[in-house]
Amino acid sequence: MNRIRKGDDIVVITGKDKGRRGTVLNWAGDDRVVVEGINRAKKHVKPNPMKNEQGGIVEKEMSIHISNVALFNPVAKKADRVGFKVLDDGRKVRMFKSNGEVVDA
Q1: DSSP string, 8-27
Q2: How many other C-beta atoms can be found within 10 angstroms of the C-beta atom of residue 9?
Q3: 3-class secondary-structure state, position 88
Q4: Taking the domains of the chain in order of start, what are their residue ranges?
Q5: Tens digits of residue pLDDT in 46-79
Q6: Residue 104 in contact with residue 94, Cβ under 8 Å?
Q7: Domain 9-76's class?
């Protein structure tokens, strides 16, 4: 079970985008995530007439290592670490370390 999942609201804790928030779009490998609006880079794209694509310079979100992001805690309104807890019914859920509140409902 991953501490950060697709669709989670995260905060960048280090790097050029430090302090910015975004949503996880997808996983890129074992330890990298692509976040909406974070770590954008300009890529030069060649035109492809077969796919009806124009060429030029396109801004694209690049992946960022999961150690550089933290889950956003809406109660505390800040980045927070994530731990795991087993509930009484046997389910394993994610929880915020600062206040013990369950992330997944």
Answers
A1: -EEEE-SSTTTT-EEEEEEE
A2: 14
A3: coil
A4: 9-76
A5: 999 999 989 999 999 999 999 999 999 999 999 9
A6: yes
A7: mainly beta
